[in-house]
Design goal:
The protein has 309 residues and is α/β, with parallel strands linked by helices. The protein has one domain: Inosine-uridine Nucleoside N-ribohydrolase, Chain A (Alpha-Beta Complex), CATH 3.90.245. It contains 14 helices and eleven strands. Strand 2, helix 2 and strand 3 form a beta-alpha-beta unit. The structure holds beta-D-ribofuranose and calcium ion (CA). Calcium ion binds next to loops.
Length: 309
């Protein structure tokens, strides 16, 4: 078994990523740790708990930090819906998270399973940054850290220069990117190029099973946003394609080890992932940046997940 920790600001595409990990036969999800981002942290906890229930239960969900390190929380409810799950009327309240704080759980689990944890981050990096600040040695004890965030090649989604997860808490992202943790970065450009679902793609997925129907129906608000604001042919699934890379590294077909720095000072380019593609800074490369991916392999994993029950 491989051991995963998933740090998430659970909204509609995070939920699909959770389904992929929770149904993977060879993956033990040790903990789902929730951070504020797309939705306030307690809503994210409810969304994660509901998603775990859809997959048969049994995986603990922990509440984490309620706001970015230095800045006010700016949610993405305008993207994913007020409840983060498409506003389709799901009963997303009343469930109880596991006792304990997400940051403690991240530190304890990485320490207990030293060298064995794949940490998958699909939200702002606040929880992980605080964990690393409190226990810097965990950066070396993680086997692999797959980050959905930033931009390898191209432009941003919430603002021209940055992707949401990095933009919303750039100081946290800076701590994580400078920590020495072995990062594979799956930027929004990868989602935009390889993980867009047209209506026909969505219909096909939703017909597979109740889990398929769940994964598609919760994208209702994201679908509107994708069309109206991102000029996509439908909705895209950034967190699921990052999860696919975590589950099977072959989903990333071209990856380069490059230096990536996070912009925190400028208002205009706040949260930009400044990727040194040509080595012009002479800084030592610190990130495996995914530059191309296999949509085919990603879809195989996604379909396997929704067929699992
Ligand atoms: C990221 O922000 C959120 O909208 C998604 O859940 C994803 O993690 C994409 O920029
Ligand atoms: Ca997310």
């Amino acid at each position: 078994m491989r051991h995963f920790i998933i740090d998430t600001d659970t909204a509609s595409d995070d939920a699909v990523a959770l389904v992929m990990a929770l149904t993977a036969p060879d993956i033990a999800v040790e903990a789902i740790t929730v951070v504020a981002g797309n939705v306030p942290v307690n809503q994210g906890v409810q969304n994660a708990l509901y998603t775990v229930e859809q997959c048969g239960g049994g995986v603990p969900v922990y509440t984490g930090i309620a706001k970015p390190l230095l800045r006010p929380l700016e949610t993405a409810q305008f993207v994913h819906g007020a409840d983060g799950m498409g506003d389709i009327g799901l009963p997303l309240s009343g469930r109880t998270p596991a006792p304990g704080h997400a940051v403690d759980v991240i530190i304890d689990t990485i320490t207990r399973l030293a060298g064995e944890i794949t940490l998958v981050t699909i939200g702002p990096l606040t929880n992980v940054a605080v964990a690393i600040t409190r226990a810097p040695e965990i950066a070396r004890l993680v086997n692999r850290c797959v980050v959905m965030g930033g931009i390898g090649l191209g432009h941003g989604n919430v603002v021209p220069a940055a992707e949401y997860n990095i933009w919303v808490d750039p100081e946290a992202a800076k701590i994580v990117f400078e920590s020495g943790i072995p990062i594979t970065m799956v930027g929004w450009d990868i989602s935009q190029r390889y993980a867009v679902f047209t209506d026909a793609d969505a219909d096909r997925l939703q017909r597979v099973s109740p889990l398929g129907e769940f994964c598609v129906s919760i994208q209702r608000r994201l679908r509107d946003f994708g069309r109206e604001h991102l000029m996509l042919a439908g909705f895209d699934l950034p967190d699921p394609i990052a999860m696919a890379v975590a589950i099977d590294p072959r989903v990333a077909t071209v990856t380069r080890r490059l230096h990536v720095e996070i912009e925190t000072k400028s208002e205009l380019t706040r949260g930009a992932t400044v990727v040194d593609h040509f080595g012009v800074t002479n800084n030592t490369p610190n990130v495996d940046v995914v530059l191309e991916a296999s949509r085919e392999r990603f879809l195989e994993l996604l379909y396997a997940a929704v067929q699992a029950q």
